[in-house]
Design brief:
Elements (H helix, E strand, L loop, with lengths): L6 H11 L13 E3 L11 E4 L5 E4 L8 E5 L6 E5 L14 E10 L2 E9 L8 E7 L7 E8 H4 L8 E5 L2 E6 L5 E5 L14 E4 L4 E8 L2 E8 L11 E7 L20 E4 L5 E5 L5 E2 L5 E9 L7 E11 L2 E3 L8 E3 L8 E9 L2 E8 L10 E3 L5 E2 L21 E8 L2 E8 L2 E7 L20 E8 L5 E8 L3 E7 L13 E4 L16 E9 L2 E8 L8 E7 L7 E2 L7 H4 L5 E7 L5 E7 L10 E9 L4 E3 L5 E2 L4
């Protein structure tokens, strides 16, 4: 249940903080201090949006439902409210906006919220609103249901989840926790769907998290909103199925009001509870945000705290089962692009790659003046550069951007085919007169266009033919097709470092070609990208079509770099004339994605390339 008290104190705080970052970090960049937001923001919900920011929404101690934004989960800034007085939901006029739940569904941001007043357990209900951007403006679609219409007393605290291709909403507050199937757009209860109870009467603030084959039903029990007398704490049970049965460690049912406690009060924080979704940082570490009262100043309201979640013996665990004072910061700020490429123009570096998020992964662009400080995404299409009207519906991979005859081109993979678009600027938009792909005899991916000294263009690419094999072919003058008669296989996998899993059909991919003097150098990656031994080697030739002689040993490997899955990148020169190679690595020792973007400097001795010791670094945002 939610409180709207202590507003005078809250608005005094807001006047101080509305135009400044709210950070209570400990000394040094590696640690932070709780609370992470010293403003009353009960019942937080968090999403990492397509622009790379985390957005937090909370029960409306700020009228019309507050929105905060952060790059790193520690430093938060107030950016506005989900609604205005004009757009505010009109149903249940006496109700306040409580317990929002933010999601990205079918290309739009969908916000579920409760509308209730104290004691209004049969007039309250759950509504839904949508927006194109996480900061809004949100358009209200009204009540999905009320307590009376769904026949569940105190129908508040909605939570959305997708499972096995279906969409569900769970909700409830001390009168049982229920779930029901939604329509495909997530905006209404599916006609004919029946609600099902999954937990007893001890909890509210429902959140379900999937981890290692289990569903974890997390919520809060006790009194939420009585300042220093609050007894709120975070609870948990788990099940192999979304709709239960959920049990505690002893196998006792949550339907019978049994549970495990994850976070309880300590001398510093009273009433910790109603947590957000568990969010991951760039290293795949789990973090949970929740509200609580500062024991030394309970009149300040329910502040926002954050702690790391570890998984021990199959259960979520917060150190000491209580809020921390000072903790190591989340690892956030890395650029998470796979198959990266860098295009240089007018003293700027433009970074593109395969994105794990966004509308069909239509390619973000990040920009830097020095390879150290990056900004973005800065594409002209809400951060993206490729027009939605170009070829493809899925699998947008491995772009390359180049300039030819005063036009900028992006050649890319989509639907396991290769297409090329053009534009006036490296930040887009890149468009096609016809949304079509280049014709190949097989599916083809990972394109790279190389212009030889004679003006001819060659397309290096990967054909999906008994594995992944790198081919080269001369292109037509308009760059819209290849001359298939010139096509030939230039790199295929051999035993050794190129196939450590010893698969029947190996993987060679990610070609990049340069010419130094009379010698052509082809950089490529081998092993499946999920393999920790993914690595980069190169071959040389006297002709763009080969034959190619392999260098013999890879030059970028996990043994050399210290990170798993090193590969699939692009070669370029920095402003000082140094050869640089941008590539991706695995997210961590245990997880492949989201893949992280990194760069190394290469030394060229007139014949061979090698990595400059100590030059490896990840690319990060401020």
């Amino acid at each position: 249940m939610k409180s709207t008290s202590m507003r005078n104190r809250f608005f005094a705080n807001l006047l101080v903080s509305a135009f400044a970052l709210i950070s209570w970090a400990a000394d040094g960049d590696d640690f932070y201090r709780n609370p992470v937001i010293r403003t009353s923001l009960p019942d937080p919900t968090v999403i990492r949006a397509n622009d790379g920011y985390f957005y937090l929404y909370a029960t409306e101690n700020i009228h019309n439902l507050p929105i905060y934004r952060s790059k790193n989960l520690v430093d938060w800034q107030f950016v506005g409210t989900a609604f205005t007085d004009e757009s505010r939901p009109k149903w249940n006029e006496k109700g306040h906006l409580w317990a929002p739940d933010i999601n990205f569904i079918n290309g739009q941001y969908v916000l579920y919220y409760a509308k209730s007043e104290w004691g209004g357990e049969w007039t309250c209900g759950i509504g839904v609103a949508t927006a194109e951007k996480p900061e809004g403006p949100f358009t209200d679609h009204g009540a999905m249901f009320t307590s009376k219409s769904i026949d569940v007393q105190n129908s508040i605290d909605g939570f959305y989840i997708e499972d096995n291709g279906k969409k569900y909403l769970f909700w409830g507050s001390f009168r049982g926790i229920y779930g029901i199937e939604l329509t495909d757009d997530g905006l209404a209860v599916k006609p004919g769907a029946e609600k099902k109870q999954v937990a007893g009467t001890f909890m509210e603030g429902t959140y379900i998290h999937r981890h290692d084959g289990y569903y974890y039903l997390i919520g809060s029990t006790g009194s939420c909103c009585e300042g220093e007398r609050s007894t709120y704490h975070v609870t948990c049970g788990r099940s192999k199925n979304l709709f239960g049965p959920y049990v505690d460690r002893k196998g006792q049912s949550l339907m019978d009001n049994h549970f495990e406690t994850i976070i309880h009060r300590n001398d510093d924080v009273v009433g910790p509870g109603h947590n957000s979704e568990i969010v991951k940082d760039d290293r795949g570490q789990d973090w949970i945000l929740y509200h609580g009262f500062d024991a030394s100043d309970p009149d300040a309201g329910r502040l926002v705290y954050m702690d790391k979640v570890e998984w021990i013996d199959g259960w979520p665990h917060v150190s000491g089962d209580k809020p921390s004072k000072i903790s190591e910061r989340p690892d956030v700020g890395g650029i998470l692009l796979a198959d990266p490429t860098i295009f240089c123009e007018d003293g700027k570096y433009y970074l593109y790659g395969t994105s794990a998020s966004g509308p069909s992964g239509r390619f973000e662009v990040y920009v830097s003046d020095d390879l150290d400080t990056w900004q973005g995404p800065l594409g002209t299409l809400d951060g993206y550069v490729l027009s939605p009207e170009t070829f493809g519906t899925k699998g947008f991979w491995a772009p390359q951007v180049f300039k030819h005859k005063n036009r900028h081109y992006m050649i890319y993979t989509a639907n396991e085919q290769i297409a090329i678009a053009e534009g006036d600027s490296p930040v887009g938009p890149f468009t096609q007169e016809k949304a079509e792909a280049i014709t190949f005899p097989t599916n083809a991916i990972d394109p790279f266009v190389f212009f030889d000294d004679n003006g001819k263009a060659y397309l290096y690419h990967v054909r999906l033919k008994e594995g992944n094999r790198i081919y080269a072919a001369e292109m037509s003058k308009d760059l819209r097709s290849i001359k298939e008669k010139t096509a030939r296989e230039v790199i295929s996998v051999e035993d050794g470092w190129e196939n450590t899993w010893k698969t029947q059909y190996g993987v060679s991919e990610g070609p990049t070609v340069i010419k130094i003097g009379k010698t052509y150098y082809l950089f490529y990656s081998c092993n499946d990208f999920r393999n920790i031994d993914y690595a980069v080697g190169y071959a040389t030739a006297k002709s763009p079509l080969g034959p190619w002689t392999k260098h013999g040993t890879p030059i970028i490997t996990r043994q050399l770099i210290g990170e798993n899955g090193t590969g699939h990148g692009d070669l370029f020169k920095d402003k000082d004339g140094h050869w640089m190679y941008v590539f991706h690595t695995h997210n961590s020792r245990s997880q492949v994605g989201q893949r992280r973007t990194a760069v190394v400097q290469l030394d060229f001795d007139g014949k061979d390339f090698s990595v400059v010791e100590g030059s490896f670094r990840f690319l990060t945002l401020p």
